[in-house]
Amino acid sequence: MRITEDSILVLDDISLSTIDVNLKKGGIVSRFTKLFSNQKYTVTTPSAVAGIRGTELIINASETGTSIVGMSGITEIYNPMYPDNMILLGFQTKSVISTDQTPSDPIELTQEEVSSFRKMLDSINTNKVLTIGKPIQFKPDTAEIMDESKIELEKLAKKMRWRFFKIEIRGHTANVGDSGSQYSLSMERAESVKKYLITQKIKSKRLLVRGYGGSKPIASNNTAKGRAQNRRVEFIIVD
């Protein structure tokens, strides 16, 4: 979780089973991951309560109200003055809660907003994100690397030959089909990238792989363009 400047935040409760954050003013950029199903995560502002099931959130609180952006997962939000008027904030949507009103209906984020908020979330990664020219993408439903992406991998291999570091290759898929198949395909994609880098004279011990399936989309899965963007890999410097 990252706290923006000039924020006032209090941890009302923090334990193995509970995290209760009281954001009096300002903003937070946060990734919440539940280790156990009975864990309770809550963010409270003067005009909003967000019950978190495990998600990526950007929350800003001011004297007039609270804006909440959900980038993944599901968040239950309501105004504490109207606890019975709860809404569910889902994937890449936002809602505004004025001090004396119930939450607005979820509004779908624009692609510009998605890109901006994704950069905010990536900024809280404790590891270094390795940026390349263009995303590494794959043919639909396969681990076959697109030809234009091989050019980017060759550039990456050149960087790795100049300087010694290890990377974690994180595979992702579009959110289509069952989650088990998505996870398997994301691992295959990460392995496919690893194998290609090995052909470029990068040693296997410098390349770790991990799959996330369709759990971390960067674009809508409702369009062909969005699904193509979600079929990708990312690189994290781990050593």
The low-confidence runs, each spanning 5 or more residues with pLDDT under 50, are none
Helix-residue proportion: 10-25%
Sketch the topology as an H/E string, one letter per element: EEEEEEEEEEEHEEHEHEHE
Question: What name goes with the CATH superfamily of the largest domain?
Answer: OmpA-like domain
Summed up, the domain count is: 2
Mean pLDDT: 87
Structure description:
- The structure is a single chain.
- The chain has 239 residues and is α+β, with helices and mostly antiparallel strands.
- The chain folds into 2 domains: 2-110, Jelly Rolls (Sandwich); 128-237, 60s Ribosomal Protein L30, Chain: A (2-Layer Sandwich).
- 23% of the residues lie in helices and 35% in strands.
- Strands 1, 2, 3, 4, 5, 6, 7, 8, 9, 10 and 11 form an 11-stranded mixed sheet that branches. Strands 12, 13, 14, 15 and 16 form a 5-stranded mixed sheet that branches.
